[in-house]
């Protein structure tokens, strides 16, 4: 059902946003439009706050003009457009909040942001504080090193310093793997992916651990592709999803409805090609996610 179209006759008579809430039966379940519901706040303010990482190219980053861009940013913009249509609004302004993963999750948990649009892995422990959308990506862990460092595997990192962003799934999953394999590497805190790459080049750390695609993006952004090497490892597999407020099923449904529509159309192919290259193809696992979650009403 095209909700925006069903309201055209009312909008033509100049109904205010408050009256729009009064006919919410056409838009979304009434429970979503309570005083504390995210959709109600968006309908009244015509604004949404989205957290994102500024240095996680090509998933999410800030470009030279200071604008958020990337794969997950494109998805979030289209989700906002879907919500705008379903609420019958003329527009929804996006306020972007920058931060690494712990900062973004905290922003969503404390109500500072309605949505986290980045490289956040969906985990059970994180679901104690925030909710999650359908998966948007699947990634594995990797290690970035300098090509001439003589490091070819995790085993070569004994006695070395590995940079990690604190309180991330990378840190939580890498630490026990190192202990289990008796690799006495030191985990050193870094601010974000860009900081890890810069500290590695400066010699402050011997390696930098993060999601593999983020590492590849940092190599591309450095302009020194011959200086680095990404070591594929098996210490983690990370399903990315969009973090959002807990206990708001109607907002989660609105987000997932937008994702389902994207996955069911050719738009997901265009977004993927834009950020990973015209010749790139989703992995079979990611392709399955697109297929499974392209749900229809």
Automatic annotation (TrEMBL):
Keyword Magnesium belongs to the record: no
Record-linked Gene3D superfamilies: Periplasmic binding protein-like II
Presence of the UniProt keyword Signal in the record: yes
Superkingdom of the source species: Bacteria
Domain Solute-binding protein family 3/N-terminal residues, every copy: 47-279
SUPFAM superfamilies linked: Periplasmic binding protein-like II
Pfam families, per database record: SBP_bac_3 (PF00497)
UniProt KW keywords: Signal, Transport
InterPro entries: Bact_solute-bind_prot3 (IPR051455), Solute-binding_3/MltF_N (IPR001638)
CDD domains (alphabetical): PBP2_GltI_DEBP
Transmembrane regions: none
Sequence similarity: Belongs to the bacterial solute-binding protein 3 family.
Entry-linked PANTHER family: ABC TRANSPORTER GLUTAMINE-BINDING PROTEIN GLNH, AMINO ACID ABC TRANSPORTER PERMEASE
Descriptive protein name: Glutamate/aspartate periplasmic-binding protein
UniProt source species: Thiorhodovibrio winogradskyi
Species classification: Bacteria, Pseudomonadati, Pseudomonadota, Gammaproteobacteria, Chromatiales
Encoding gene per record: gltI
């Amino acid at each position: 059902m095209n909700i925006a179209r069903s309201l055209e006759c009312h909008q033509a008579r100049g109904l205010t946003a408050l009256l729009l809430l009064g006919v919410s039966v056409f838009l979304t379940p009434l429970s979503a439009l309570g005083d504390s519901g995210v959709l109600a706040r968006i309908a009244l303010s015509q604004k949404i706050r989205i957290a994102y990482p500024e240095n996680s190219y090509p998933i999410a980053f800030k470009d030279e003009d200071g604008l958020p861009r990337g794969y997950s940013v494109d998805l979030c913009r289209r989700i906002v457009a879907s919500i705008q249509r379903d609420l019958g609004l003329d527009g929804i302004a996006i306020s972007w909040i920058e931060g690494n993963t712990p900062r973004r999750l905290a922003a969503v948990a404390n109500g500072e942001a309605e949505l986290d649009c980045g490289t956040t892995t969906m985990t059970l422990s994180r679901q104690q504080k925030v909710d999650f959308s359908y998966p948007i990506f699947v990634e594995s862990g990797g290690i970035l090193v300098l090509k001439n460092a003589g490091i070819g595997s995790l085993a070569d990192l004994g006695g070395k310093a590995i940079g990690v962003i604190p309180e991330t799934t990378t840190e939580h999953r890498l630490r026990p793997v190192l202990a289990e394999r008796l690799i006495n590497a030191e985990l050193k805190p870094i601010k974000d992916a860009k900081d890890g790459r810069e500290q590695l080049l400066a010699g402050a750390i011997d390696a930098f651990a993060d999601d593999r695609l983020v590492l590849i993006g940092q190599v591309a952004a450095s302009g020194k592709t011959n200086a680095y090497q990404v070591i594929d490892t098996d210490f983690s597999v990370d399903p990315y999803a969009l973090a959002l407020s807990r206990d708001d099923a109607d907002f989660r449904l609105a987000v997932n409805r937008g994702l389902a529509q994207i996955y069911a159309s050719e738009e997901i192919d265009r977004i993927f090609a834009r950020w990973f290259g015209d010749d790139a193809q989703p992995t079979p696992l990611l392709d399955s996610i697109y297929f499974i979650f392209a749900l229809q009403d």
